[in-house]
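Following up on my earlier thread - several people asked me to post the actual chain instead of describing it. Fair enough. Here it is, all 453 residues.
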Amino acid sequence: MYRDPVPSLEARGLLPAATRALRVGMIGIGTVGGGTFRVLARNQRHIAARAGRGIEIVAVAARDLARAARIVGAAVPVTADPFEVAAHPEVDVVVEAAGGTGPARDWVLAAIAHGKRVVTANKALLAVHGEEIFAAARARGVAVAYEGAVAVSIPIVKALREGLVANRVEWLAGIINGTSNFILSKMRDEGMGFADALREAQALGYAEADPAFDVQGIDAAHKLTLLAANAFGMPLRFADVQVEGIDGLEAADVRGAEQLGFRVKLLGVARRTPEGVELRVQPTLLPATHLLAQVNGSMNGVMVKGDAAGVTMYYGAGAGAEQTASAVIADLVDLARLEGVPPAQQVPHLGVHPHATEALPVLPRAAAPGVRWLRVPLVAGQRLDALQAALAGHGVSLQRVVWADHTPAAAPEALCLTGLLVQATLDDALRALATHPAVRGPVKALPVETLDA
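Reply from S.P.:
Thanks for posting it. Predicted structure:
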């Protein structure tokens, strides 16, 4: 184990010798759990200086006991039973680092029932079961912390719940899935198709063997659910998020966006409107000069617009063992500092106290307003003004329409930028185009965001 050369806080007279360490039980010692153990061991003195007390792992549950023992050493007992950690009498905080939404729910609820505080980076667990988990924690008077669940190295949950607490948040938008961002960056920078870019992401470890949660937008939707609840003081509404992934994108979509001065990003957007909260995860065009459009590779970026602070932006790694550990340990330090503080005086789980939660309506997909980008395959010999007239006949005005570069004369494509419309209007127009004699195939439509202050 790494030995920190800095003398102990007790030896330096900075920490009373009688102050007991925060005792942590960990369920799962894979990527997140292993990274957390390593960072705690490496930086233990520095972490204690911030927490005002030590933080130590005292019990670990894992499927592979031999591997777990190699990571934590002989001094930390390991077990195959997560419920043993959840009920351990010498554990103050349970770190759930196993993932999933089934057994993990039971382990977390068991820990809460035994009076344990909980730290998790499991965004799926909280997006699906968060209301139940937070209600159980309130009833038992314990905290559930989850900074690592969203954009791991970026303290965006703390920013929303604490740093921006004076603001009425108007909107937030984020690139919050590193795998999809890596794939889109490869498609743009190297002209790759989706399948080739995905294979490279898998070879480098950015994508799982089954990448569905990432490329279909589900992982980002889990995270957006948590961000929106903290931003607007609303309940968790994962089932109401409009979700579209990048798995349907083609290289021609990325090129066509670039031709009109945009870049394609998988963007999670939460926005207040007079009719309700817009919640959506979709491949979205951003102006190429926009700050979020510069977030490349596996990095994450989140932008928030508050009425007082204006626009603020947060950038950092969206995945990684020690990057996630940084957020998990930040939660542990917060809990160490809160020892003895009544629950009513602690930061609420979702940013506002339960009695003040607003059951804001979520805007239905058909009513979502905005500008859209279209890629329309046309029959050879057709004119752009004929397409413009066909769309206008269904209430769709165009700001701009051009021929796509690099398409053969026998298979021309038009690139369009619409005026402001609602999704229902566009859907009607696309149904009409599907049978129009001038159109030779499916039309691709993507939202456009400028995220103006």
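Residues 1-11 have pLDDT under 50 and may be disordered. That should answer part of your original question.
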